[in-house]
Every structure is written in C-alpha cells, then in structure tokens.
Amino acid sequence: MSPALSRTHPPSQPDPRLRIAVLASGHGSNLQAIIDATAAGTLAAELVGVFCDRPAAQALQRARAAGLPAITVRPGDFSTRQQHDEHLFSAIDATRPDLIVCAGYMRLLGQPQVDARYGRIINIHPSLLPAFKGLHTHQRALDEGAAEHGASVHFVTAELDGGPVIARARVPVGAGDDAQRLAARVRGVEHPLLVATLCLLATRRLGLTKRGVTLDNQALRQPLQLGDDGLC
Ligand code: GRF
To answer: What is the CB neighbour count within 10 angstroms for residue 82?
Structure first.
C-alpha cells in the first residue's frame, strides 16, 4: 500500500461484530429472525453462511434472498458419517464463524466437531429443557398434561439436547390446544428468545466455563428467562 493511500485509509479496526454461521433443515423461520435482527441493527452480528442438509429447504431460499452464502451439504453424498461431518465443518470453518447456531437443523453433529468447538455452538429447541429432549415435543407436552411449555436455547454438547441451558421462554398450554396450535404459540416466543440470546453473545456477555453458563463472568444459577431483566 502506498504511503499516501495509507494516510487516507488508516488501517481498519477489526470488525467486532459476532460472525454467525447457521445450520438449518427446514422452514428457516428462526434464521429469518436472525436475518431481520441484523438488518434492523438490533443484533450487532454478521451472518457469514447458512448450511443445510436438504436442498429443498426453505431456509436456503431465505438465505439467498438475503444475499447470504447458502451451502447445501447432503449426507447422502458421503460414504461415511465421518466424511460428511469433516466436509461440513471444513465448509463452516471457511466462513470463520465465532458462533454456530443450530436453528432447526435435524441432524446430530459429530462428537469430535462439537468437542472442538466447546461454547461456540448453540441450539434452539422447542421445549422447556431438560423436559422433552428429542422429537415431537409439543405432542409429548400435551400427552403429559403439562401446564406450560416453551422453548430453550442451550450450548451444544455431544448429548442430544443435553448441553447447558442458557435461556428459556414459557407459554401456557391451553385447554383446547392440539400439537399444531401449541407449536404455533411456541414459535412466537422462539424468535425473540433466540435473538435476545444472540444479543448477549454478540456483546460477549455470555460464556461457557467449567462453572457452567456465565453472564458477565458470574455463573448462572438457573437459565435466563425471556422477559426478565437479563434477557429482554
Ligand atoms: C424450531 O421449532 C426449533 O426450535 C426446532 O426446529 C424448529 C425449526 O423451525 N429445533 P424453523 O426452521 O426455524 O422455522
């Protein structure tokens, strides 16, 4: 660079915005909430790539419409699970994310890849964890006669939906609810829950240590709750 150019263009500061890669499999409504929050400036983050296992997923269309890199990695294109996981994570790593967000990604992540990214992968799950890990959470909440249900954001570990819970959002279960109605109510709190959690991560206030989840370097005694002071 010429001296004159360097005088008019001083060395740029490193971009402090959190670099987020998203993994999705389906509709991508949580992805859209992140896209909208970054576009509105309420979330100081940069979406660096969207990764999907299904070429027809609406999440890919949402990513392309937002001008984001949209990458499909189909498990069926690989002869082993290990090859798939290595390929997927090398594609993710190429986007240099600070954080990987599983937003409706319907596959288990490889244990070596998860272990190597401790505290840098989160997942949103449609239940009040630790209740109802796994699938069909809304129907299972109804079957058990739960009075309330909701969504959780947690750090990802090798255990399915079992990593330390960061934050939750509650909804009441109505007398006339079926799984579809309940799912729609939960979906309404998932998006603000995910964005609010990402805001805390973007400002580097949240962490994961041997003491568990920390907020401002203090161990959380229980998960944050959407609507409380810590998570607005
Ligand atoms: C959400 O309910 C999320 O909690 C779960 O999968 C669903 C994804 O929805 N993990 P979308 O694809 O973000 O609309």
So the answer is: 12
Q: Which positions are catalytic? A: 125
Q: Which atom of ligand 1 lies nearest, measured to the CA of 30?
A: 13
Q: Say if ligand 1 is within 6 A of residue 189 CB.
A: no
Residue 4 has pLDDT above 80, yes or no: no
Q: State phi, psi for 218 to the nearest 5 degrees.
A: -105, 135
Instruction: Give the C-alpha separation, 175 to 147, whole Å.
Output: 9
In 3-state terms the chain splits into helix, strand, coil percentages (rounded to 5) of 35, 25, 40
For ligand 1, atom 8, name the residue with the nearest CA.
Answer: 104
CA of 28 to the centre of ligand 1 (A): 7
Q: What is the pLDDT of residue 13?
A: 58
Phi-psi region of 216 (alpha: psi -120 to 50; beta: other; left: phi over 0): left
Rounded Cα gap, residues 164 and 192, in angstroms: 20
**218 three-class SS:** strand
Segment 72-121, tens digit of pLDDT: 999 999 999 999 999 999 999 999 999 999 999 999 999 999 999 999 99
Band the pLDDT of 215: cuts 50, 70, 90: very high
Atom of ligand 1 nearest to the CA of 24: 12
What whole-number distance in Å separates Cα of residue 216 and Cα of residue 160? 27
Place of tokens 């990695």: 73
Mapped onto helix, strand or coil, the DSSP state of residue 102 is strand
